[in-house]
User: What shape does this take?
Amino acid sequence: MNAWTRAGFAALLLSVVAGGFFLSSYLKGQASGAGANSTQRPEFTLTDLQNRPRRVGEWDGKVLVVNFWATWCSPCRKEIPQFIALQQEFGTRGLQFLGIAIDDPGAVREFVQSLQVNYPVLVGEQDAIDVAKAYGNLIGALPYTVVVDRKGAIVLTHQGEVSGHQLEQVIARLI
Assistant: This one.
């Protein structure tokens, strides 16, 4: 096996393992009935980019994808265009992305405007970190993505970058 073949095999193996972790997290939520024994979404209020307080309850009844991120986080920045596309595709069917930036509001505002983000983005520092912990991110990983079903049950948590394709598979089952 030459070096390129070994590298390709290693990349494929890593992809399969990562995908398996993602899907096993999702299936664990499904096995529990996606609401019957799942953790309910914690309540919180954070400010948006216009400095208005926003309650997570505003999106009750929707499939909610909460993404914790920062402008200085390269994998975070890479995910967002995929989230924009998924919001565009599934928004009319009850999907709502919600970005929570653990960052400086000015930097977030500039980044969001440059990409024309089509979903709400809330900002915070320690208060946003506290929300991330309440949603299961005990180690402070970024990006960190949580999927909540229409009944408010957390059906998936994912630390690190998530692919749009993997996320679409989860969303399609919940919409």
Notes: The first strand starts at residue 45 and ends at 48. The two ends are 45 Å apart (CA to CA). The CA atoms of residues 136 and 151 lie 18 Å apart.
